[in-house]
Amino acid sequence: MAGLTLEMAEKAVKAAQAKARDQGTPMTVTVVDEAGRLILSARGDGAGFFTPETSRAKAVAAAAFRRSTKEMVRLRDSSPAFWSNISNVLNGEALPSIGAVPILSDRKVIGAVGCGGGSGEQDHLCAEAGAAAIANG
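Above: the chain sequence. Below: its structure as tokens.
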């Protein structure tokens, strides 16, 4: 699979938004490429006004660190100085808060899906659904 395309991002957004509807929560979904560049962001009906920014920052973190933001939150216990300050160091561009997962193709990170609008766990489940829609074709 080549790089992440707009068509692929649209598929991820639709899958993540469907998962959000199943959970009964408004959701903004943002898809970035492997370098954290925006491909698509869709603010769901009723989602908070700041969710486009937070979902993008989560997606950037997942792409940059090549792991889910849920895992990053767990890593705070082992390296609190690093994980608690990374958002400040990167001027808010990356947010290691639960709700984003990398998108993999042939075990290589090609981008990430970040979600915001629900609880951290709801955001994470929606991001997983979006990434799976791309990985599963």
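The beta strands are 28-33, 38-43, 100-105, 108-116.
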